[in-house]
């Protein structure tokens, strides 16, 4: 797996359906050359887990509301979000490697989780 603590292994997306969408304010990780590469890989054994601590108040995780960057905890309505792990863009699945996107449960800044 790509190092999700690295610069672009995780991204935050709006999980609202039929409600306002909140795009990320920082689009740095949308640049193709910043997608996780081979040097950012961590090998996990079957059933092995990794724990990450994220500070969602950092500017990297701010979203746009009315054209302005804002922390998700400062949104007027409790919008739902997901963190998505994105594996390296290149590579083919085989018996030892998996490539794709892995979304988290939806959550909001007030502790609601689906």
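-> sequence recovered:
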């Amino acid at each position: 797996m790509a190092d999700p603590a690295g610069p672009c292994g995780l991204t935050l997306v709006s999980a609202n359906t039929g409600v306002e969408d909140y795009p990320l304010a920082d689009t740095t990780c949308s640049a193709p050359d910043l997608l996780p590469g081979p040097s950012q890989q961590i090998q996990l054994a079957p059933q092995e887990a990794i724990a990450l601590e994220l500070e969602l108040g950092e500017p990297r995780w701010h979203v746009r509301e009315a054209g302005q960057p804002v922390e998700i905890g400062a949104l007027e309505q409790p919008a739902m979000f997901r963190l998505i792990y994105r594996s390296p863009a290149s590579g083919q699945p085989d018996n030892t490697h998996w490539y794709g996107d892995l979304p988290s449960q939806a959550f909001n800044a007030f502790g609601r989780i689906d």
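The mean pLDDT is 78.
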